[in-house]
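User: Predict the complex.
Assistant: Input components as received:
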Amino acid sequence: MTPRIQPDNHVPVYLQIVEHVRSAIAAGVYRPGEALPSLRVLATDLKVNPNTVQRAYDELDRQGLIESRRGVGIFVAKRGARSARGRAEESIHAAFAQAIGSAHAAGLSSDQIRELFDDSLEEVLAESGGRA
Amino acid sequence: MTPNDSGGPAVELIGVSKQYDRATVLDNLTLTIPRGTTLGLIGPNGAGKSTTIKILMGMLAPTAGQVRVLGIDVARDPASMKRRVGYVPERHDIYPWMTVGEVIDFTRAFYETWDESFSCDMLGVFELDRRKKVKQLSKGMLVKLGLLLAVSHHPELLILDEPTTGLDPIVHEEFLDGVLRTICQSPCTVLFSSHNLGDIRRLADSVCILRNGKIIVKRGLDDLLASTKRVRAVLADGHLPRWEPEGTLWQQVQRREWLLTIDGFSADIAERIKAENAVESVEVFDLSLAEMFRDYIKGE
Amino acid sequence: MMMQMRQLLWKDYRLNRGLLVLSVVGLAGVYVAGLTVEFSHTWPAIPAPQAWADGVYSYGHLSLSVMPFIAALLGGNAIACERADRSAHFLAYLPPTKLRIVASKVIVVASAVAVFCCGNLLLMYAVAPRLAEDPADFMYMMGSPAATLAGCLFTFGIGWLGSACLEKPTIPVLAALASPIVLAMILTTLAALLGISRFELVEWSPIIGLWVGIAAFCAGTWCYFRRVEP
């Protein structure tokens, strides 16, 4: 899957690429140990400067999601999937914490918060066709 | 091929000016492009983009200043510079009576580094017919031919002057593909001037904004986008702004809304705006490249 | 280097091909016209070998004298033809040096003129004498081959100078075609002012034409090298 890079978006292109690769790894499109597309291939696919792709891969390497082996290629790190999901989980955890904090401030009890959560979960699952 | 200095910048313009009678097209321009980077040259029409490029290619003589391309003084030795540079002009003036095949054979003779298999590949990818005469080619095919001729000898510097203006979306993509194939194939510095901000976003590492023959800003693109912000401050009733931050590029007051575009924005600056002016609130927004470009040009 | 020159020569040949074909037709046309006239005198009988020999020799001489006008065409067209359709701009950002570009043009024109002259001279001095002994030249007033060569260099030089400085070949070609007449007028006026006889004038004009032509060619080449815009 190669979603188009959004040139009008103010997010730097290399970060858009980082997010695209991260979510692909988290979803299991690329498994740990598998090779990622080469610099050239990704650059031509996304129609961006290879320097930008390099920057994205450097950032992914720094985050521990991928590792590059000289002369061989770029691979998903062994802990890559977990790190990828971990990052997603981190931001969701933060969002939950914020919502729970607001709920407490509004005076809801823990049971009420849990009930609210279950209702919301059911709603969302019903809408998206139930992916557990 | 004698490398003049493989470590130096790809392009150096030092104090370059160009004057026609009373009109100053370029005003003491100084610009350096490091090797391996891609620079996007942006500016309104008449800013001097094409003039700068023609001076780089030795097709116009500057009124003052020095021009060095790949370490070579363009005025002294244009021929050896041209062997290492690929150029795609805004207007294609290829011999109209030649066929595509004849043009390629003609051009190939002048470059030692010509890669025939790369050229044939591109011919196939671009779907150009060798037997067709240049005058029979559509604009899109002509532009693709121009690119093929410019990149088949693996230039160290690729110069593109408004390359995608007037191209239909399909040819536009093909053209970008062609440029990317070249960059990926061998290390290449690219200078391109464009009105198409999408292309700038995709290809450029850094941008240079020109206006009235002067450089307004030259910086890494991501850096520029990250550090240039739009600020909306709501002024207290009956008050006008008293103090504006140093990097203010553009501002406007409408009713109680005070809009500013600030270069080099930081949280401190937001604090100072609140402190020095009678404002009730301050909000910060990111800018798209188009908005940022407009504010750099409009401002000052 | 050879590949470069080969392509440049091919390009300049193709640029001038139309004019070259026109020239061949014109030069051959002189023979065809003249010999037809001879034939018409003796119609329906075929002219005697002596008449043929005289005809070939004389019309060869006439054909040779047309050469300066061909040189004018080629000179006037030389550089400006590429400016007219802007292909000079394309060539300008390719590597070949101005020296090579100019050399290619000069070689193509010089070769063409040489071939045409040799063709005529061959017919005059090799073919005509074989048809009959001692062919007569009733075109003797056309001037010697040496004078013709000087004339070619003169008109070519004027055309070349115009072509190097202007954007289209029309004016350089017209100027070059008119140049022998203009030179004649100038020299006649000078002769009258200085009290020189017509006879001496006719003797001196080829030399003057030659040197003016060479000077014009040098000036044109200098202008072309100095000019930065294609």
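Chain A has a mean pLDDT of 82.
Let me know if you want any component modeled separately.
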